[in-house]
Each structure stands twice: as C-alpha cells, then as structure tokens.
Specification:
Largest sheet: 2 strands, antiparallel
Radius of gyration: 21 Å
Strand order of the largest sheet: 1-2
Low-confidence stretches: 158-194
Distance between the termini: 50 Å
Order of helices and strands: HHHHHHHHEE
Strand content: under 5%
Amino acid sequence: MLTTASDYIRHRLQRYEASIDHTRASFRDPSAHGELIASAPYSEQCALPVLLDSLAGNPDETTMRQEYARITKKLEALARESGPGYRESLMKDLTNLAHMYHASACHASICNLSDEAATAPCRRRLISLLLAELRVDHDVTVIETLLSMIDDNIRGSATVPEHSPASPEGRACFAVTEPDHNSSQKYSRQIRID
C-alpha cells in the first residue's frame, strides 16, 4: 500500500495530539504511565511545519493546517496548566538536548561528517521550540550562548589547522573546549588528528 503525503502527515498530527494527551495524563498520575519525557509533544511538533509546507497546493493543506493549529492550542494549554513541575521537566529536557547537540556537533567536526546528518536539524528545531517556550520564566542565556558557539562552528567560523607549530610531531591538534572538571584549566585536553 502506498502512503500518500497527506496520509503520512495525518498520522503525524495524530501522534502529536496523542503525545499531548499522554503527557497530560502522565502529569496527573505519574505512576500509571511510566517515565515521562516532558518534551515529547514538542518533539512531535517540530517536524510538522516543514511537512505541512510540503503540501503546498494539495487540497488537504488547509484542513491539516487547521488541525495543526487546534492541536497546538492543546499544547499551549498543557504548558500553561501543568505548573512549575512540568516546566522544570521541560528545562531538564532542554539542557539534555543542548548537550546532545553539542556532542553530535563535536563528533561531526572530529570525524569530518556532514553537519546536517550529525547535528540532526529536527533536534535543533526542537531546541529552538523549547527555548521559545521556556525563555519566559527561565534563564536560558547559558544554553543560548552554547548554541550560538556550536552554530558558529558548524557554519565554519572555526577550523582545525592542517599543521600546528606547537605540536612537536607536526600533527594537527584541536583543543576540546569542554573543561575537565578536575582541572582549573579552561582547555584541559587536546585530541591529536593524524
């Protein structure tokens, strides 16, 4: 059976709404639903605008955009009504996502992988959605600064030299910017790239 774009997007809209309902139920009775990932509805939401844009000219586009808007209002109500515990869970998810994004960008840089494949554009959109949601009542400047540095590196403003004169063997060295927590030095380690 061939799945059409409309069918696929309809399915994604159903998943989006189900994730909101599940998250709401999990906050009402955490023991009944297992471990909660507070950002699950935002994760479902982040790809939908791109998918809906792909429907340009499709007769289902208007109906699906209206359905997306209706479901998004449910998400806004969830964020408003679930209280500080939910928002703290969102902040924890945002912090974890930012660290995963950082790690994948570093991995892409060191292994010469394509930036888009390694840094997951949907993850970056999810981080942006959570930043927009949490900026109102949380200090997210540290995460925004980290993301800005990562994005600058991805755009190519930081390069790894072919030869480092400081290296006795003539190998290129790249300083890892994450500090060693047992050291007072800002750049605690170097990775040799042969």
